[in-house]
Design a protein that fits this description.
Structural class: alpha+beta
Largest sheet: 8 strands, antiparallel
Strand content: 15-25%
Radius of gyration: 27 Å
Distance between the termini: 52 Å
Number of helices: 16
Strand order of the largest sheet: 7-8-9-10-17-14-13-12
Helix content: 25-40%
Shape: elongated
Number of strands: 29
Oligomer: single chain
Length: 647
């Protein structure tokens, strides 16, 4: 998202009661992706690239799509919204919001529209090619003869931002494609049956940016200013419909990876492959984002959705962004298009457990994640705040005290603990002769040093930043992640990890120290110990991590009855206290924590968080914790213990 776009959105939404101005939203629509390219397809058919953190390529900053009717039907309602005249008595008809879905277990987006010339089915798919990642859009009319009589064509307006630039951008016009470039990045727009380029031009001029009113994208030619047609990122072109079908594609490539001829050839090859709807579906089923599950997986549809999302958010390195970055200019947040080791390692751990239970066949995912963590570990055994997922390079952040001359309060120790816990469980599943054993063992040894360095004399972590990154203290969530990591390392046993006994002792000391956080009059564990030694007794969904941590500890130590009862009391009180069901909304769930004021705008209440709701989803009425039986030594091929439950 370029600054011009953010300013324009601010003008459009500055007085909106709930929408945050200056952002690019994906609250509606679906994503398709491949090879690090992440493309959002909105219900009205517009597309936009969100894959810069994954690939380093910016691509399409904005787009508009419509139907161009050279011979509009007589019954066309010229007063209807979204209908406007074009040159030579033609009409431009915008797509209204269509019905969207994924095609099966693939990342092929299917959207259906109603238009003045009948129904339209549109397919959108992002695929990897020899020259880079391409996105293809195929539009098919339900009544080809009616579309032909109206002279229908797909009108596409794209604003490309190679390397994130909106200035010093150039264009080359080829036979059936337009190339937009800055230096390293080349972006292409092409049509399968030709490309009638209607206009282009420079980004909004200073007077338009400074005007209090938003500016409209112009789809007309610049006329005598022909040189400016080739000096900006805007391209407006028509793709004719042949036999009721029009297909357009964009391709992002790097100068070092593919020359111009190779990129144009890759587009021609792609059009040849997707010449029918069936061939496009076949191609979708062969992409990395297509999900294949073994028979018998419970709630397979949900598993497909989850794995597809994780695949789309993943860089080729295996590291994942927290989400499509809706706020790259940090207008209302610190940005989301980065890899946090807390988030990534927790996802990796869940995938490892799910694969062990359902045999999902994603072993390569686990190995890729482990490799990424090995490559990004700092010399002191810890991990930084956040990195670029495409290469593991340090990303902008504010919690890198271990790399600066700052105190540990500007460090998020739970991130290191989350990675260490995953690596320990990954190591437990490796064969003794696996080539990664020595590397993972060495990384765990360093990680244990880094974690011990963050402990106070009482066994709990020292003051640092919290999981929500908006406070400093000695947090229960941080302690829980440390307990989980120490327990996972200890469960390896000294035969697999020499310092397993030390990890066991650390876990036991930390387990005992958690009693210091109990707030009896409220029946909860405090969210944190403050600098003056007092306890912050607010409810916080991050403290749900205590349940996972105690399950891990139960495999190497004893959970006493008092602690069990306190955990049940804490979880019940936290779920009840954070639950919110607003009367004016269909959304209900859990908020992050009591008193959370972030991004409320006009809502007047703490926001409901998907993550918090998932963590604390309401258990059955007879719920009680399930604890693994204690084992003195973990087997080397699987996680320790078996679950035993009581009600």
């Amino acid at each position: 998202m370029r600054l011009r776009d953010a300013l324009d959105d601010h003008k459009r939404n500055r007085d909106h009661p709930t929408r945050f101005p200056g952002e690019r939203r994906t609250t509606a629509g679906l994503f398709s992706g491949a090879a690090g390219r992440l493309v959002h397809v909105a219900p009205d058919g517009t597309v936009r690239d969100y894959g810069y953190p994954l690939s380093g390529l910016s691509g399409v900053a904005d787009s508009r799509v419509a139907l161009r009717l050279d011979d509009p039907p007589a019954e066309l309602d010229w007063d209807a919204e979204g209908v406007r005249p074009a040159a030579d008595d033609a009409a431009v008809v915008s797509f209204e919001a269509g019905e969207q879905s994924y095609h099966g277990a693939t990342a092929l987006v299917e959207t259906t529209f109603e238009t003045p010339v009948g129904g339209v089915t549109r397919f959108d798919l992002t695929v990897d090619t020899d020259a880079g990642a391409a996105h293809v859009t195929r539009v098919a009319f339900d009544d080809p003869s009616r579309a032909s009589e109206a002279g229908a064509a797909l009108l596409v307006g794209c604003t490309f931002a190679p390397e994130g630039r909106d200035a010093r951008v150039g264009q080359l016009h080829h036979d059936d494609a337009v190339e937009v470039f800055h230096d390293r990045e080349r972006d292409f727009l092409a049509g399968d049956a030709g490309l009638d380029v209607l206009g282009g031009g420079l980004p909004a001029a200073p007077e338009a940016v400074l005007s209090p009113e938003p500016h409209e994208a112009d789809a007309t030619s610049l006329g005598d200013r022909r040189e400016e047609d080739h000096l900006g990122g805007d391209v407006v072109a028509a793709v004719p419909a042949v036999d009721g079908v029009a297909t357009a594609a964009t391709l992002l490539s790097e100068r070092e990876d593919a020359d111009r001829e190779a990129s144009l050839a890759a587009l021609d090859d792609l059009f040849a492959v997707v010449d029918t709807a069936d061939s496009l579906v076949d191609l979708a089923q062969s992409t990395d984002a297509a999900v294949s599950l073994p028979d018998g997986v419970a709630r397979a549809a949900a598993a497909v959705d989850d794995l597809r999302v994780l695949s789309l958010l993943s860089a080729p390195t295996g590291m994942r962004i927290a989400g499509p970055d809706f706020d790259p200019h940090y207008v209302h947040s610190g940005g989301y298009g980065y890899t946090w080791f807390r988030d990534d390692a927790e996802v990796s751990g869940f995938l490892l457990g799910a694969d062990g239970r359902f045999d999902l066949g994603i072993e390569e995912w686990h190995r890729r994640s482990a490799r990424a963590y090995l490559d990004t570990q700092l010399p002191d055994g810890t991990w930084p705040h956040r990195v670029w997922p495409r290469n593991g390079a340090l990303a902008p952040g504010w919690a890198n005290a271990r790399m600066e001359a700052l105190e540990d309060v500007e460090y998020q120790a739970d991130q290191t603990a989350s990675v260490a816990a995953f690596l320990a469980r990954f190591l437990a599943g490796l064969d003794d002769d696996d080539p990664m054993v020595d590397e993972v063992t060495a990384a765990l040894d360093d990680a244990l040093d880094g974690m011990v360095d963050s402990l106070a004399d009482d066994g709990r972590p020292v003051a640092c930043q919290n999981a929500w990154e908006d406070g400093v203290g000695r947090f229960a969530h941080t302690a829980a992640r440390f307990l989980d990591a120490f327990s996972a390392i200890a469960a390896l046993g000294p035969e697999r990890f020499e310092r397993a006994v030390e990890a066991t002792d650390r876990a036991a000391l930390l387990y005992d120290a958690l009693d210091d956080l109990w707030v009896a009059d409220r029946g909860v564990f405090a969210v944190s110990e403050l600098g003056d030694g007092s306890l912050d007794a607010r409810l916080d969904s991050a403290t749900f991590a205590l349940a996972d941590a105690h399950r891990a500890y139960a495999a190497i130590g004893e959970i006493d009855e008092t602690r069990r009862n306190r955990l049940v009391e804490h979880l019940d009180a936290t779920i009840d206290g954070l639950y919110h069901d607003p009367a004016d909304s269909d959304v209900e769930g859990l908020v992050r924590y009591e008193g959370d004021a972030w991004r409320q705008r006009g809502q007047g209440h703490e926001k409901i968080w998907t993550v918090s709701t998932a963590w604390g989803r309401t258990p059955p009425a007879n719920w009680r914790p399930c604890w693994p039986t204690r084992t003195t030594r973990a087997p080397t091929s699987s996680p320790p213990g078996q679950a035993t439950c009581s009600t």
